[in-house]
């Protein structure tokens, strides 16, 4: 259990201003907003509430820093990232506690996120020196083709709440590629990003390369930056409706865009699956971050022969998970991020139950302070239940039975989303056929976690486009230039 003195000291150490051009400053007009502890509703801290003008000043700083940063040796950019990796790992406990306080996830989950977040810095430290091009003889002879890759230029990020990992997944490749940036953290969890900006300054990121503007007016503040002809790239992690609005704005200046949007992940268990492994995987895929993950398994399609036993075992395991404030010992399930989130989860469960679903476990909010919702398993979920189509974003597992492979694949694909699917089977043929037919950017085959900094993370359909991490991740921050050379 963390002690209140330690929490206070940590919160006091986090800068609360806007980070622009290498220094901390107040918002114009001195506006502030409160950051809440979702497990109690208490205010943790107040941070600067930027105006649209502040965001444009942050872009000015990014634009001014861009030429020198692009000209910095790749090795030097890589070394900065390497130091950032090491320092973040050293400070795991501080960053984990900070995330738990402002986001609610249990400390063990928060530590895992710090490790995951730091790995993006290590991965892109290595990638910074592998940016290459190509040289070729033109097919007709005579001419030569030179293809080079250069930093795209100033970028705008608005990441969500895996508060650190969603940041490092964008900041890592931008630094490696030589891009400067303006980052707007989520208003619900800005402290982790402010602490990260401090850490990046300490390890040598030069003034103006990373600028951070916290605000409650996300749309108003980002709009003038997106409309500014000096911005070159927009990378967004968040919901599909906001992503669509940003794509429309970005179209005006034909910006390079990456979108990591919503999901509706199917978790499919075939009759030849290892049931123990499937239940283990289901716990990870469903309960990581209390179900508040774009990759969260949203619906469980289980072969009819296994469905009752799968639901029973899942309910048994979820019932054993301790719910509470993330800082407490053995807590496995924290609160949801805010009151509104809990209202939405409750509405989706109530809708399913009203249409005939049966709660095997939970199915209700928990009393007391904070935004807690009971881990829930629903069976007999009818096809028209909203939670099979909409992201639940909470600890709720609807189980639906299927009879044939075709039926399972059709159900898995029956959504406008396409981020990730989980498939459990022991048959190689079936595994490959199903992986090929599933319309998602990622598949977890006999495993409930796909996130890996060395792999390309991203979706298809309305889950977005662009990839973060892997060999592909840095491409989002590079432009290709082709030089046609005539030899005499
Ligand atoms: P949201 O889209 O409402 O908010 C996300 C972020 O967008 C916040 O930082 C918010 O300040 C900002 N924002 C809101 N309106 C904006 C605007 N008009 N202009 C610019 N920025 C704006 O999303 P939410 O409901 O808080 O988050 C959950 C969603 O995020 C889910 O759909 C989840 O799947 C998705 N998500 C996706 C990924 C991924 O990698 N694909 C990762 C995490 C979360």
Can you walk through the features of this model?
This protein is of the alpha/beta class and 488 residues long. The protein has two domains: 4-261 and 464-482, Aldehyde Dehydrogenase, Chain A, domain 1, CATH 3.40.605; 265-452, 3-Layer(aba) Sandwich (Aldehyde Dehydrogenase, Chain A, domain 2). Helix content is 39%, strand content 21%. It contains 14 helices and 24 strands. The chain has helices at 4-13, 52-71, 74-90, 92-103, 107-127, 165-177, 191-202, 218-227, 240-252, 275-287, 307-319, 339-354, 405-413, 428-437; strands at residues 18-20, 23-25, 32-36, 43-48, 134-137, 144-151, 155-158, 181-183, 210-212, 233-237, 256-260, 265-269, 297-303, 322-323, 331-333, 358-361, 376-379, 396-402, 417-418, 420-424, 442-445, 460-461, 464-465, 478-485. The strands form seven sheets. Strands 16-17-18-13-12-20-21 form a seven-stranded mixed β-sheet, sandwiched between helices. Strands 9-8-7-10-11-23 form a six-stranded mixed β-sheet, sandwiched between helices. β7 (155-158), α6 and β8 (181-183) form a beta-alpha-beta unit. It is globular. The site of nicotinamide-adenine-dinucleotide has 21 residues, from α8 and α9.
């Amino acid at each position: 259990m963390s002690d209140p003195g330690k929490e206070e000291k940590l919160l006091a150490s986090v800068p609360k201003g806007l980070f622009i051009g290498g220094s901390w400053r107040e918002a114009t007009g001195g506006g502030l907003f409160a950051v809440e502890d979702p497990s109690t509703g208490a205010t943790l801290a107040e941070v600067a509430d930027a105006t649209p003008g502040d965001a444009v000043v942050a872009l000015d700083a990014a634009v001014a820093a861009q030429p020198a940063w692009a000209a910095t040796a790749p090795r030097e950019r890589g070394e900065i990232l390497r130091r950032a990796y090491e320092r973040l790992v050293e400070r795991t406990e501080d960053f984990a506690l900070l995330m738990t306080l402002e986001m609610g996830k249990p400390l063990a989950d928060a530590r895992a996120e710090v490790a995951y977040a730091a790995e993006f810095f290590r991965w892109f430290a290595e990638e910074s020196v592998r940016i290459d091009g190509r040289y070729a003889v033109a097919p007709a002879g005579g001419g030569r083709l030179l293809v080079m890759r250069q930093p795209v230029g100033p970028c705008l990020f608005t990441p969500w709440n895996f508060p650190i990992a969603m940041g490092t997944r964008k900041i890592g490749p931008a630094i490696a590629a030589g891009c400067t940036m303006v980052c707007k953290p989520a208003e619900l969890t800005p402290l982790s990003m402010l602490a990260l900006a401090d850490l990046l300054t300490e390890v040598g990121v030069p003034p103006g390369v990373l600028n951070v503007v916290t605000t409650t007016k996300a749309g108003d503040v980002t709009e003038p930056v997106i409309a500014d002809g000096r911005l070159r790239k927009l990378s967004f992690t968040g919901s599909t409706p906001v992503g669509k609005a940003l794509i429309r704005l970005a179209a005006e200046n034909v910006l390079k865009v990456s979108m990591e949007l919503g999901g509706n992940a199917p978790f499919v268990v075939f009759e030849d699956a290892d049931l123990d492994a499937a239940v283990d995987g289901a716990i990870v895929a469903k309960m990581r971050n209390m179900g508040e993950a774009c990759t969260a398994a949203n619906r469980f399609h289980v072969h009819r022969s296994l469905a009752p036993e799968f639901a029973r075992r899942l309910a048994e395991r979820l019932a054993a998970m301790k719910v509470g404030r993330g800082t407490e010992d053995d807590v496995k399930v924290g609160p949801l991020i805010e009151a509104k989130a809990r209202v939405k989860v409750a509405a989706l469960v109530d809708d399913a139950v009203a249409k005939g679903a049966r709660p095997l476990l939970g199915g209700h909010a928990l009393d007391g302070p904070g935004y807690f919702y009971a881990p829930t398993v629903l069976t007999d979920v009818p096809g028209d239940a909203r939670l099979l189509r909409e992201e639940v974003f909470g600890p709720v597992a609807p189980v639906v039975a299927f009879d044939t492979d075709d039926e399972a694949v059709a159900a898995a694909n029956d959504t406008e989303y396409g981020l990730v699917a989980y498939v459990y089977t022991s048959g190689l043929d079936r595994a490959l056929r199903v992986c090929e037919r599933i319309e998602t950017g990622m598949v977890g085959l006999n495993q409930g976690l796909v996130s890996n900094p060395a792999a390309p993370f991203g979706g298809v359909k309305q889950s977005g486009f662009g990839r973060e991490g892997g060999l592909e991740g840095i491409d989002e921050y590079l432009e290709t230039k082709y030089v046609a050379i005539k030899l005499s």
